[in-house]
Structure formats: structure tokens, C-alpha cells
């Protein structure tokens, strides 16, 4: 009973987390704004850690989510929209949705970059085969930290906190949707 209630709650949160947020921005103005946010986020992260810039350059592809929001009080959820690049060229849009349940409270905003090591890893993402646990090995981007980052199962995740405060001992995960440009 508890497991089925938990599963139902996660499904509900994943659906509610992105109500009204399609994967592709629906106007040219919104596409331009997202693109500007993606470029500014990458520039900030590269300035914070030159090793991050070199890690991204070594990857086959990457997805950039410039502004992910998350909030929780026992049950949590969040998400945001980003762009996907293959060998430096933007190929599509993606949304990330997150749902968690457990001992947690607060809210935060952060950026996330997922670097794909190979074409196979990118294909797995595009085909929506990746679902990361909430405790996936994300590298909190600080100066020098990216030098020790490694791919795990073909991906590396970098997070850059923008603001907020959140305390969490929860379980859940992230799921992704992709739409070609």
C-alpha cells in the first residue's frame, strides 16, 4: 500500500511539475530568451571553472537547463526547460521534471548541464531512456572541481546553484523530454 501510494504521488508530481510548460518554447521571443539564458549560463559556468569548459568540449553532446526551480515541503517537485547541443550545434529542446518525497523543506533555483560522452549516450537521452535518481552524482560546480569530474554510464551532470535554501533527505528522480529543433 505504501509503495503504491508513493508511486502514485511521484507520477502526480511529475505531471504537475510541468503543467503549462511545453518542451519547445511557443514563440520566437521565448526561443530567443531561452537561447540567451543558455548562453549566459554556459558563460558563467565556464568562468567559474575553466576545467568545466574543457570537460564540455571533450563531450560528444550536452544539454543546458539555465534555470531549474525546485520546492518542497515533504513532497517536492520542480523542473525547467533547456536546449540540447550535439558537437556544439543546437539540435533541440528539452524539459526536466523532478519529483521527490521525504524529509525536505525549502526551495532553490539552479542551473544544470548534462554532458554526454558518446553518440550512444545522447541517443539514450533523446529516446527518453535516462531517468536519474534524485541523488545522481551531480558535480556542484566550483572553481577547480570539474578537473576531477568523470563520466558515469556515459553522462556527467554539473549543477550551479543560483539561490535559495533547501534541506532534503528524500527519494525521487528526474525525467526528461526531448523535441528536435
Low-confidence stretches: 1-20
Mean pLDDT: 79
The chain-level structural class is alpha+beta
* Distance between the ends: 42 Å
- DSSP strand content: over 45%
Care to count the β-strands?
5
Total helical segments: 4
Largest sheet: 5 strands, mixed
Summarize the structure.
With 181 residues, the chain is α+β, with helices and mostly antiparallel strands.
What does this molecule look like?
- It is a single chain.
- The chain is of the alpha+beta class.
- The protein has one domain (2-180).
- The protein is built from 4 helices and 5 strands.
- Strands 1, 2, 3, 4 and 5 form a 5-stranded mixed beta sheet that branches.
- A hairpin with a 2-residue loop joins strand 1 and strand 2.
- It is globular, with a radius of gyration of 16 Å.
- The termini are far apart.
- Residues 1-20 have low confidence and may be disordered.
Which terms summarize this structure?
five-stranded mixed beta sheet; 5 strands; globular; disordered N terminus; 181 residues; alpha+beta; single chain
SSE layout and pairing:
Layout: H1 2-17, H2 28-48, H3 50-58, E1 61-86, E2 89-116, H4 119-126, E3 131-133, E4 138-140, E5 155-180
Parallel strand pairs: 4-5
Antiparallel strand pairs: 1-2, 2-5, 3-5
Helix pairs in contact: 2-3
